[in-house]
Amino acid sequence: MLNAGDTAWVLISAALVMLMTPGLAFFYGGMVRAKSVLNMLMMNFIALAVVGVLWTLYGFTMAFGNDIGGGLLGGFDFAGLSNISGDLAGFATAATDTAPEVAWPGADALPLFAFVMFQLMFAIITPALISGAIADRAKFWGWTLFVAVWVTVVYFPVAHWVFSFDGFIGADSVGGWIANRLKALDFAGGTAVHINAGAAGLALAIVLGKRKGWPKGTGRPHNVPFVLLGTALLWFGWYGFNAGSSLAANDLAAVAFTNTTVATAAAILGWLIVEQIKVGKPTTLGAASGAVAGLVAITPAAGFVSPLGAIAIGLVAGALCVLAIGLKFRFGFDDSLDVVGVHLVGGLVGTLLIGFFGTTSVNSLGVDGLFYGGGLGQLGKQALAAAAVLGYSFVLTFVIGWVIKKLGGFRVSAEDEVSGIDEAQHAESAYDFTGSGGGLGQPNSLPVKSSTGTVATKLEESKA
Amino acid sequence: MKLITAIVKPFTLDDVRSALEQLGVLGMTVSEVQGYGRQKGHTEVYRGAEYSVDFVAKLRVEVVTDDSNVEKVLDAITTAAHTGKIGDGKIWVTPVETVIRVRTGERGSDAL
User: Fold this and answer.
1) O-UMP-tyrosine (modified residue): where (chain B) (predicted)?
2) Which residue of B lies nearest to A219 if distances are taken between CA atoms?
3) Which of A142, A238, A376, A417 has the most CB atoms within 10 Å of its CB?
4) In chain B, what is the straight-line distance between the N-terminal and C-terminal CA atoms, in Å?
5) In Å, what is the CA distance from B52 to each residue of A169, A217, A219?
6) Residues of B at the A interface (Cβ-Cβ below 8 Å)?
7) Mean pLDDT over residues A211-234, rounded?
């Protein structure tokens, strides 16, 4: 029967994960120059709008509808969120008295709609993560089109592979191949979200090309406090992401909450120590980046490892990601805000380390990794799942990006890039730098009646 | 009359101002400026990538004074802005044709 505590926790978790996307916008927005911060915020914010609608029309059913073959894609039985009523079937095993409790809610614990909304927020933040790889240079509508196509052909199917379990939505429902055939473990989205977005970021950074002046002349972050503020919002929201993924207010949620916290703490230390050795100073941007690297890495493992395992994963992630962000300079791709170095590498670290640190003492639905008497088998499964998602996402993203670019819809002109994408794409500027309030924003920008009788602005005239 | 322009380290402003007040200097203009002399800029590091900041933040203090006061004003600023380290700044003196107080139309020393 419906469990009020579980339902409340999952609804709150959905709201927490929703907050991550604006948080991400500030995390990224602080790292770009003042002339392109609004565009960066908008690239993230638009994901809420586009994916929110598509999820309702066909996204949820492509991800969680009954499998149409091979565990590759969900069918269209829930298109338009029709036929969604009643409660999530959950796992029968949840009814057993295994201790600590298993990963999933007891039968009929949650309204199906709560699950629909919780999963929507994951579908929103995943394309938003990609935006950091192509900061400062994408046409807004081109990016919006990309988000719509990308979630349709990449995210929704991959979410089906990883998140859709047999017998979960309904008693006889059939899910995706990674979750049910391969049986790779991904608690909250190391493969489906982070490796997926990281591989897509790499492909898109290559397709769109470098910014003018990269690597020397692309400016320093314009607002590091924004970056730390965004990190704090991400961390806060990530409790919904990870602890919420237990889909129940239970032991496992508390374990995932704990692991999320300590892995992030360890990752900050890992990043700062390596940075101190390499650069000679512990930076604020480094602390923020380390925190996100830790959050990314613990995502797939949050419900499968002990707190000590989580600390190890966090330390490895922080130390490896700070080294990985140098790769773009070596290979010459302008992954502007290090989506590859943080999300792809962090996601790989967490996904693979489950093969070492996984333990059934935390979760009876998990496995024992190499350090807990398990064999190499799980590590192989984790690697295969990671490679499958990485390869699929990279290739499809490359094709989608290439087509949109060829149609002339993706890259802004060099002139707009240099003068500022905010003004060119949105006719706005983030900050008024004129202390006296002069410049833009004087009377001729007030809304006026145009000759056709509609309200318009004279911005165009003021520019002439 | 002379215009005395001093480029000083920002944190010395309070000392410079009180030293000039004690001399009876009744007004000044202060602006935030950037530049470099012997003291070069610095390097910032963001995610391992180095950015050189070529210009150093300084304050420009401008005072117009009677010829008779110039030496005293110069001494006062030099003392107040001195730390002995590289980057303490520069002071220069330029002749001023005249000064007008906008409110009253007074000219010359009366307008100071």
Assistant:
1) 51
2) B51
3) A238
4) 10
5) 56, 11, 10
6) 44-49, 51
7) 93
A145 and A404 Cβ atoms separated by less than 8 Å? yes
Q: What is the pLDDT of residues B25-82, one digit of tens each?
A: 989 999 999 999 888 888 888 988 888 888 889 999 999 999 999 999 999 999 999 9
pLDDT of amino acid A91: 64
Quote the number of domains for chain B: 1
Closest CB to B48 among A31, A220, A278: A278
Angle between helices A37-54 and A4-29 (to 10 degrees): 150
Provide the shortest C-alpha distance from residue A155 to chain B (in Å).
29
For residue A217, what are the contacts with CB-CB under 8 A and spacing of at least 6? none
Torsion sign over Cα A203, A205, A206, A207 = positive
Structure tokens at A438: 């002069």
- Residue B65: φ, ψ to 5°: -145, 165
Residues A271/A318, Cβ–Cβ less than 8 Å: yes
Q: How many residues does chain B have?
A: 112
Does A387 reach chain B within 8 Å, measured CB to CB? no
**Distance to chain B for A338, nearest Cα, Å:** 9
CA distance A114 to chain B (A): 39
Chain A residue numbers with beta carbons less than 8 Å from the beta carbon of B47 are 283, 285-286, 289, 322, 325, 338
By the CB < 8 Å criterion, does A326 face chain B? Answer: yes
**What is the rounded distance in angstroms from the CA atom of residue A393 to the CA atom of residue A396?**
5
Q: What confidence tens digit (pLDDT) does each residue in A96-112 have?
A: 444 444 445 666 788 99
Asked if B35 and B9 count as a contact pair (C-beta separation under 8 A), the reply is no
Chain A positions touching B49 (Cβ under 8 A) are 215, 329
Give yes or no for A275 touching B (CB within 8 A). Answer: yes
- What range defines the domain where residue B65 resides? 2-111
- B30, B47, B51, B55: which to substitute to probe chain A, counting the most A Cβ within 10 Å? B47
> CB-based contacts of A35: which residues, under 8 Å, 6+ apart?
A419, A420, A421, A422, A423, A429
B43–chain A nearest CA distance, Å: 11
- Domain with residue B30: its CATH number is 3.30.70.120
Residue A410 buriedness (CB in 10 A; 0-12 / 13-18 / 19+): buried
SS3 call for B55: coil
In three-state form (DSSP H/G/I as H, E/B as E, the rest C), the secondary structure along A119-171 is: HHHHHHHHHHHHHHHHCCCECHHHHHHHHHHHHHHHHHHHHHHHHCCCCCCCC
